[in-house]
Design brief:
Keywords: Chloroplast, Glycosyltransferase, Membrane, Plastid, Plastid outer membrane, Transferase, Transit peptide. This protein is α/β, with parallel strands linked by helices. Among the domains are: 67 residues; 241 residues, 3-Layer(aba) Sandwich (Rossmann fold); 170 residues, 3-Layer(aba) Sandwich (Rossmann fold). The protein has 33 helices and 18 strands. Helix 22 packs parallel to helix 25.
């Protein structure tokens, strides 16, 4: 009975033990599945996180990397952080994103996997329930209470799972990352402001100049469109499309390049501002780089001639071509003469002044006091003597002559024949065209920009203002405006406008490049000394001086005085001048009973004019009145209109500008009641020809040319020079060449020349010019068609 009871109790105990084992096994297996799923999710999570961070780092570096050359920037220590971070992220990604991990885990722990339990490890846990001897026979009874406490089991798959290297690495890495609490703590530094500031400060180190690439990426569509629009700018301007619209189109197409320039500015420690010039330069560099990488070399087109002056004697040659000459006292005769003297004074370049030669009959019409010359040498001596008396030094430059004819209708001298041929090819280096539109209206010969390396035009006269005063003036002004645009584009590299009163021309900038005769500055200094000694410097009132033609301010003057005759009661004005409209002007003033005293014209530096205190100049047709500058230099008050032509003079305290006729009266009374202020040394210098020459050299880009810096814009990329003019064609230059060719064909036809107002027989010089200048006899040709 006892044996039977013990046997029954043992069986019950065994059954109960195996029941607990079965139940415990299910719990262990479920727990293991949950753990494995958690491990799988963590592995996938870190895999995705590593890939995301890796992409962010790559994007950060790639976005900073330039697609074109930039200046070399010094490396800093912060770049080591970025260099070390990317390999670690890549290693992390490689370890935890290995496809073998997920595949092998799923294969080994799927439903069909065979599992073995090493029960011998829990044998000691069962001694409380079963006899030690019986436990040796059963070899596998589990202490369920201890299993529940530890919830831990050792798994073995055919004796090799515990030795699997990827799982051990995974556990180690997971432990390390669990200590960090979350991925935000690990990578939160990317969003931390301190880190961002460090990245910003490291831009100089990140944005370094790349190594020279063997392959240059081709131009994309926006770059091609931007380059086409920019090159077509001058052509679109002819069609009425404003330049600022073209600039905006180019800027929008180059938005990517603009962002890169902003990065470059930040890296260089400069303000992140990018103007149109920078965008255009980088676009030119980009196109030149692509063309050069293909081995292409642009050698000129149908219109272009690159055979130009070669500087072999070490000195540059400057040829100044003008439309008038002394003794005609006009701005285009006097100012180019002073410019030649002060350019030659530096002795850095040889200077030639090319002036028109008139036959005796035309000299009698143009030159004052019946002064004429029998030979060019005689006139050359006269010009040199007149100049040296005023500048106080010997002007070492050459004076040459070209044939010209005087037009009574236009009151100007028109060149006869090809003016450019009177500059020898060996001296054809730099050309300065005084009044370039005037010189080229009927020019039929060599293109200036083909013969000379650099051609600068200086606009003296507001022709549109004069033409509008004539019959059918609006139509004529419209035609002349476009003809001026055409000849400027065809024959000049750079154009300087003395003031904004002139026509807005292609390739032009506004700058006053004229000075005053040094004699006027000396007069001003003497007046200031007399005033310091308590002497009376000015004993007379107001005066006006200018060529007596209606367009030179006489119409405005008579209108103002007639309107305010009562307001200016007792005001007397002396008027000095000669001209074609002298009789009509004087008759009108007499009829209106104006207090005007008309006197013969004279030099502004004449002693009889020193005692006047106020110079009145109401003209609005001038571009930059030389007489106004001379009056200011002599220390006088100047009353002039609030007009773009007087913009340069506004900074002088003695310049009183008016906007209305009532304001004119107030300014005249103010000037008569007060004493002018003495000029400061800086103000005297700004009026001098030394300052004017410095401004001219700067704004005409002559300093770059004289220093043998090729305009064409040699770009430096990756320590490699890229010459724009040679590497790539210019659509604008091709259009300019086409316009020059069309103009050459047009001016070659005598019938068309006569239709547009040319003087008959000026397509070439005549026999008298040939005799006076010792030229070859002119060619005999069809007098009408001139083919």
């Amino acid at each position: 009975m006892d044996n039977e009871t013990q046997t029954t109790a043992a069986a019950t105990s065994n059954s109960s033990a195996f029941s607990f084992i079965s139940k415990g096994w299910r719990e262990v297996r479920n727990s293991a599945d949950a753990d494995l799923q958690l491990m799988k999710d963590r592995a996938n999570s870190f895999k995705n996180l590593a890939a995301s961070v890796d992409r962010e780092i790559e994007n950060l570096i790639q976005s900073a990397a330039p697609t074109f050359s930039v200046p070399v920037i010094r490396q800093s220590s912060e770049i080591d952080f970025m260099k070390k971070l990317q390999p670690k992220i890549s290693e992390f990604r490689r370890v935890y994103s290995a496809p073998e991990i997920s595949r092998r885990v799923m294969e080994k722990w799927g439903p069909r996997a065979k599992l073995g339990i090493d029960l011998s490890r829990i044998r000691s846990a069962m001694v409380a329930e079963v006899d030690e001897n019986e436990a040796e026979d059963m070899d596998g009874i589990i202490d369920v209470t201890k299993v529940r406490k530890g919830r831990r089991a050792w798994f073995r798959e055919e004796g090799q799972f515990g030795d699997w290297e990827p799982i051990r690495a995974l556990k180690t890495r997971l432990s390390e990352f669990e200590k960090k609490n979350s991925s935000v703590e690990i990578f939160g530094g990317f969003k931390n402001s301190e880190f961002v500031e460090k990245v910003k400060s490291s831009l100089k180190a990140i944005y370094t100049e790349p190594q020279e690439s063997k392959e240059v990426p081709p131009l994309d569509v926006p770059e091609l469109l931007a380059y086409l629009v920019r090159q077509s700018g001058a052509f679109l301007d002819q069609l009425g499309v404003r330049r600022d619209i073209c600039d905006k189109i180019v800027e929008s197409l180059c938005s990517k390049r603009k962002n890169q320039l902003v990065w470059r500015s930040l890296a260089a420690g400069e303000p992140p501002t990018v103007d149109n010039d920078k965008i255009n330069d980088e676009l030119d560099l980009r196109v030149a780089s692509v063309l050069q990488s293909t081995g292409h070399c642009y050698e000129g087109g149908f219109w272009t001639d690159f055979v130009k002056h070669d500087v072999s004697d070490g000195k540059r040659h400057v040829a100044i071509v003008t439309t008038a000459s002394l003794p005609w006292m006009t701005g285009t005769a006097v100012n180019p003469l002073f410019r030649a003297a002060y350019l030659a004074k530096s002795a850095k370049q040889k200077v030639t002044l090319l002036v028109p030669w008139l036959c005796r009959s035309d000299q009698e019409l143009v030159y004052p006091n019946n002064l004429t010359f029998s030979s060019p040498e005689e006139q050359e001596n006269y010009i040199h003597n007149w100049l040296e008396e005023r500048v106080g030094f010997k002007a070492d430059f050459k004076i040459s002559f070209y044939p010209g004819k005087f037009s009574k209708e236009r009151r100007s001298i028109i060149p006869a024949g090809d003016t450019s041929q009177f500059i020898p090819s060996k001296d054809a280096d730099i050309a300065i065209l005084e009044e370039p539109e005037h010189l080229n209206w009927y020019h039929h010969g060599k293109r200036w920009t083909d013969k000379f390396n650099h051609v600068v035009g200086i606009v003296h006269t507001n022709y549109l203002e004069y033409i509008k005063r004539e019959k059918n003036g609006a139509l004529q002004a419209f035609l002349v405006k476009h003809i001026n645009n055409l000849v400027i584009r065809a024959y000049c590299h750079k154009v300087l406008r003395l003031s904004a009163a002139t026509q807005d021309l292609p390739k032009s900038v506004i700058c006053n490049v004229h000075g005053v005769n040094p004699k006027f500055l000396k007069i001003g200094e003497r007046v200031a000394e007399e005033r310091e000694l308590g002497q009376q410097a000015f004993s007379k009132g107001a005066y006006f001086l200018g060529k007596m033609v209606w367009a030179k301010g006489y119409k405005e003057l008579i209108d103002l005085l007639a309107k305010h005759k009562n307001d200016l009661d007792g005001f007397n004005l002396d008027v000095y001048g000669n001209g074609e409209d002298a009789h009509e002007v004087q008759s009108t003033a007499k009829r209106l009973d104006l207090n005007l005293n008309f006197l013969k014209g004279r030099d502004h530096a004449d002693d009889s004019l020193h005692g006047y205190k106020v110079f009145i100049n109401p003209s609005v047709s001038d571009v930059l009145c030389t007489a106004t500058a001379e009056a200011l230099a002599m220390g006088k008050f100047v009353v002039c209109a609030d007009h773009p032509s007087n913009e340069f003079f506004r900074s002088f305290p003695n310049c009183l500008t008016y906007k209305t006729s009532d304001d004119f009266v107030a300014k005249v009374k103010e000037a008569l009641a007060n004493e002018p202020q003495p000029l400061t040394p800086e103000q005297r210098y700004n009026l001098s020809w030394e300052a004017a020459t410095r401004r001219f050299i700067e704004y005409s880009e002559l300093d770059r040319v004289l220093n043998n810096e090729d305009k064409s814009a040699k770009f430096r990329s990756n320590e490699k020079i890229i010459a724009k003019s040679v590497s790539m064609p210019s659509f604008s230059e091709m259009v300019d060449g086409g316009l020059a060719f069309s103009h050459y064909c047009f001016t070659g036809n005598e019938f068309l020349r006569l239709c547009t107002g040319a003087i008959p027989g000026t397509r070439d010089y005549d026999k008298q010019h040939s005799k006076d200048l010792h030229l070859l006899p002119p060619q005999v040709e069809n007098p009408i068609y001139g083919w």
